[in-house]
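hey m, so remember when u said the tokens were messed up on ur end? i reran from scratch. heres the input so u can diff it against urs
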Amino acid sequence: MKKAVIFCSGAFQDTTFPPLQKREEWLVVCADGGFRHAQRLGIIPDMIIGDCDSFLQAYPKTVPHQIYPSEKDVTDTQLCLDWAMEQGANEIWILGGIGGRLDHEFSHFALMLYAIKQGITVRLWNDRNEIFMKDTPFTLHPDGRRYVSFFPYGGDVTEFSVHGLKYQAEGITLTCDKVQASSNEFLDGQQGTVSFSHGYLLVMLCDEA
């Protein structure tokens, strides 16, 4: 499995993200101003892609880069996602994608759907949150975060069931106009199992602010 990290230009201060200690195992691509995070962390990316509107200097000549016009039909992050997938990455983490502009943050959910339709997992990560999307049943392992919430994306999630967490569910339908599965919790290190028959499920693992 080839994995990749995309640095976006939103808030990102944490240095405990595991790939930062195993740079050789990950592709690193920066979406324009996300290059500042890589610079601060002393990471040389494999590629910088952007339109130079959030990184206002010239990209270093020593780092591979692709420059696009600012007026385009895709975001810099999607261009980075496409590049990572072209390199064979099938697990992609976005850092600096939470806590900046809300429209950018929301757009990353659409990119999760775009990727999952191609069999690729995309995760948003910062020191307090991890967000990903699923289209098939899965197991949740405790990772130290307190809460886990589930939301349907783009339509109903049917026959949704949860076992092994504090609050159980059995065969319900999650709809986009109700909050039905928020703020669940792990039980004493137990894993949880989540199943559903149809739909796209946003999963949010969160800590208190």
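this time it looks ok to me. The helical segments are 35-40, 76-86, 102-116. if urs says something different then somethings off w ur setup not the seq
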